[in-house]
Amino acid sequence: MEYELILLAAGQGKRMQLKKNKIWLEIGGKPLFMHSLALFLADERCKQIILVCREEEQSELRSVLKRDMKTYSDRITLVSGGAERQWSVGCGLDHCSGERPILIHDGARPFLDKVVVERILICLTQSDAVICGVPAKDTIKRVKQGVVVETPDRSELWQVQTPQGFQPNVIKLAHKIAKKEKYLGTDDASLVEYIGKRVEMVEGSYHNIKLTTPDDIVIAKAILKARRGDRA
């Protein structure tokens, strides 16, 4: 199945305690976003990659992509993002053809496995929306003002990851309605849920972490070492 990708790289480094966009953080000798970018560039079914980034970083991104001939491709389009993640995705959707399913992935998740992508694409052949995730390992408590008010059934709780996949008409409609009604969701799937559409879940990977805080760097290095062996 042919598809298009929106790769989000317009974040900041506040929670990572950086003075720059965390996508420039290097893991295994490459910036975070380059790991995922390489995976999708290697997939010939991925016909277009919308790289959503900060406007002031586009020049630097182009230089990096052109310098790395294995990474540079005319399939990549740079698009300026918005102040919120949801708005950045909306900017990316404006540049999608509308003819193919769309995957949306966080550039700060460098350890995506192609097996997970395959699961999403297979499910998308019969679904409007597909997300990936892993069962929650810990007991989760719902807390208000420092007091536990509920302990949800852990067997029903999943930690949601990206990529998330959608039929183009569904995700574009979801974003259009969310914008009109000023609804800000926690992820793209929540916008699809908001308009009453069914969202399927497939198994992700516990390695598919999002690097958000300094502690995540330690975990990322351990994952990389496990993948590469003692060479990392």
UniProtKB/TrEMBL annotation:
The record marks 15, 22 as: Transition state stabilizer. GO terms for molecular function: 2-C-methyl-D-erythritol 4-phosphate cytidylyltransferase activity. InterPro entries: IspD, IspD/TarI, IspD/TarI_cytidylyltransf_bact, ISPD_synthase_CS, Nucleotide-diphossugar_trans. The keyword Transferase applies. Pfam families: IspD. It catalyses: 2-C-methyl-D-erythritol 4-phosphate + CTP + H(+) = 4-CDP-2-C-methyl-D-erythritol + diphosphate. One of its GO terms (biological process) is isopentenyl diphosphate biosynthetic process, methylerythritol 4-phosphate pathway. It is an enzyme of class 2 (transferase). Pathway: Isoprenoid biosynthesis; isopentenyl diphosphate biosynthesis via DXP pathway; isopentenyl diphosphate from 1-deoxy-D-xylulose 5-phosphate: step 2/6. Keywords: Isoprene biosynthesis, Nucleotidyltransferase, Transferase. The record marks 154, 210 as: Positions MEP for the nucleophilic attack. Its EC number is 2.7.7.60. NCBIfam families: ispD. Catalyzes the formation of 4-diphosphocytidyl-2-C-methyl-D-erythritol from CTP and 2-C-methyl-D-erythritol 4-phosphate (MEP). Belongs to the IspD/TarI cytidylyltransferase family. IspD subfamily. PANTHER family: 2-C-METHYL-D-ERYTHRITOL 4-PHOSPHATE CYTIDYLYLTRANSFERASE, CHLOROPLASTIC (PTHR32125). This is 2-C-methyl-D-erythritol 4-phosphate cytidylyltransferase. It comes from Listeria grayi DSM 20601.
